[in-house]
């Protein structure tokens, strides 16, 4: 609901394991934007509730809800649209190369699309449930399709990466890559086949914006998962 007196600029409806939600957590952290998290338990089908559908007709996460004029009450239910909104509303630091570098901007958008159109939609929880219902192995499905997608990402990033996916500055491509690799690790993808992806990911993983966004550091992270990781 619109609330210009809300203590934070945004509320992010998020699930700790959602890679789409993590993209926005990374971007919000990187830009130093004040936000709180409203957890949505996908395993409990909270996203299917009438209340959530009223906010996001897609019945998905993330959902980014603005609390500040002139956008108080404005909600965005798709992660890439929300990334672009945040970058235009809060341009420092930018998540796209300069406007006059059309080629670099196109490369960033290509990498974003590889993750957000080629990998994530066919490996998300909704699809995995259907794969299981059809009698196939959802983990193997996820592993194969993620491997294919990261192969494409590697081929493009390998030609354009510096310290980051494109050159030596943060872009949307980096915010999308990190959660995709978290998912790849979860399902046992062999990341040694992707040296550029691995190098950039390892560097990004140490940055405070990413550490704070990590699925292990969320308010809805199960305590037993956090404890298991800490015990390693």
From TrEMBL:
Report domain GST N-terminal positions.
8-94
Source species, domain of life: Eukaryota
Q: Which Gene3D superfamilies match?
A: 1.20.1050.10, Glutaredoxin
Instruction: State the PANTHER family in the record.
Output: MALEYLACETOACETATE ISOMERASE (PTHR42673)
| Residue ranges occupied by any GST C-terminal domain in the UniProt entry | 101-223
* A single GO cellular-component term on record: mitochondrion
Q: Which GO terms describe its molecular function?
A: glutathione transferase activity; maleylacetoacetate isomerase activity
Record-level GO BP terms: glutathione metabolic process; L-phenylalanine catabolic process
Q: Give one Pfam family.
A: GST_N_2
Q: What is this protein called?
A: Maleylacetoacetate isomerase
Q: Which family does it belong to?
A: Belongs to the GST superfamily. Zeta family.
């Amino acid at each position: 609901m619109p609330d210009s007196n809300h203590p934070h600029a945004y509320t992010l409806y998020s699930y700790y394991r959602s890679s789409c939600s993590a993209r926005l957590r990374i971007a919000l952290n990187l830009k130093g934007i004040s936000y709180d998290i409203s957890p949505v338990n996908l395993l409990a089908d909270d996203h299917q509730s009438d209340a959530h559908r009223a906010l996001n007709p897609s019945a998905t996460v993330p959902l980014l809800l603005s609390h500040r004029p002139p956008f108080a009450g404005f909600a965005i239910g798709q992660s890439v649209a929300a990334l672009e909104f945040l970058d235009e509303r809060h341009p420092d630091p930018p998540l796209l190369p300069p406007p006059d570098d059309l080629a670099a901007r196109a490369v960033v958008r290509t990498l974003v699309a590889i993750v957000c159109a080629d990998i994530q939609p066919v490996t998300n929880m909704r699809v995995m449930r259907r794969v299981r219902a059809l009698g196939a192995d959802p983990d193997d499905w996820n592993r194969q399709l993620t491997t294919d997608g990261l192969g494409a990402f590697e081929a493009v990033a390998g030609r354009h990466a510096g310290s980051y996916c494109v050159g030596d500055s943060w872009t949307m491509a980096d915010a999308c890559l990190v959660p995709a690799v978290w998912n790849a690790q979860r399902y046992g993808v062999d990341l040694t086949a992707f040296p550029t992806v691995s190098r950039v990911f390892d560097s990004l993983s140490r940055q405070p914006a990413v550490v704070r966004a990590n699925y292990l550091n969320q308010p809805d992270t199960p305590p037993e998962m956090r404890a298991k990781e800490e015990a390693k």
